[in-house]
Design goal:
By secondary structure, this protein is mainly alpha-helical. The chain contains eleven helices and four strands. The chain has a two-stranded antiparallel sheet. The chain has a two-stranded antiparallel sheet with strand order 3-4. Strand 1 and strand 2 form a beta hairpin.
Length: 324
């Protein structure tokens, strides 16, 4: 039931973003061009002081979905724009992931022993893991409400960006789960009796736990991806306040680790999900600041206007050139 609701939610988001993004002189194309320019230049510098978040750069209803569509597009096409340097980084990450994979079962057993033999770990793990599910959405709503009530444009914008990171990370991890088809640690194998960190690909029989309940694919961790996606948004937008990144990444790390102690994921699921969430969070933030820069440049353009004035009984035409 949860999977069906989630699928309908994701489908509705995709349809609405595509519908709202079909505009002439699309902002999405401008954002794509700006992305390629900043990537080729070696990155970008974001202006995060409170004055930068104003009526010109705020996210309206239509802008939200245009940015969301742009985020989806950039994330899906990112592999096609990787440089040689980027591919080297991907290769290094792959080596790390394989190394962690060799320890998947050992880490899973350690996590279970730690949870089974420590009441405090059981209580904390259960509560922390929920922060990465429905409570994360509640937290975003609370922060957004605070921003609107107290007219804090920066908190409003940051929370909207965090929600975009949350949505896009959920879609991306769902796609990867469907493709990889990996068994969860809680998967019940009637023959082997013990779950293996095995990949079955997109075509496989439904996974079930020991109680017969259907469970989804394991790779990557959706909780870890969503937690790090939102955490990265707040960490980047408030990097001038060291406590915010510390709290954000600490919370995300605890949520990710709790998925091991709750026997929901293998260690490689966590590493992959956390990394994906981090990269998605960065993309969402950088894309917004490219949008903000475009808005500021639009405002600064000089303009020419024609006026008619009535002076001393005569109509006198005039040209006004405005410098900005």
């Amino acid at each position: 039931m949860k999977l069906a609701i989630r699928s309908v939610f994701i489908l509705s988001i995709l349809i609405s973003t595509i519908a709202l993004a079909q505009q002439p002189d699309s902002l999405i194309k401008k954002l794509d061009s700006a992305q390629l320019m900043t990537d080729s230049a070696g990155g970008q510098t974001n202006v995060i002081n409170r004055k930068a978040y104003n009526e010109r750069t705020e996210i309206h209803f239509d802008t939200y979905f245009i940015l969301l569509t742009s985020n989806f597009k950039q994330q899906l096409t990112a592999p096609f724009h990787l440089t040689k340097k980027d591919w080297i980084k991907v290769g290094k990450f792959g080596v790390v992931l394989v190394g962690v994979g060799l320890l998947d079962e050992s880490i899973q057993r350690f996590g279970q022993n730690l949870r089974d033999n420590n009441k405090g770990v059981r209580v904390i793990s259960n509560r922390v893991t929920n922060l990465g599910a429905q409570y994360e959405g509640i937290t975003l709503i609370a922060l957004g409400t605070y921003g609107f009530l107290f007219k804090n444009e920066k908190i409003q914008t940051t929370t909207l960006l965090a929600s975009q990171a949350y949505i896009t990370s959920s879609v991306m991890e769902s796609l990867l789960k469907a493709i990889t088809g990996r068994q969860r640690p809680s998967y019940y194998d009637p023959i082997a009796k013990e779950a293996e960190p095995r990949f079955h690909g997109p075509i496989h029989k439904p996974f079930k736990d020991v109680s017969g309940k259907t469970i989804s694919s394991s790779f990557p961790s959706g909780h870890a991806a969503a937690a790090f996606a939102a955490a990265t948004v707040y960490a980047m937008e408030y990097k001038d306040r060291p406590l915010v990144p510390i709290i954000s990444y600490t919370t995300a790390s605890l949520i990710a680790l709790s998925r091991i102690t709750e026997n929901r994921h293998w260690a490689t699921d966590i590493v992959a999900g956390s990394t994906m969430g981090f990269l998605i969070g960065r993309q969402v933030v950088n894309n917004y600041h490219r949008y903000a820069k475009l808005q500021e440049e639009k405002r600064k353009k000089n303009s020419v206007s024609f006026q008619l004035q009535y002076n001393f009984g005569h109509l006198m035409p005039g040209i006004v050139y405005t410098f900005k």
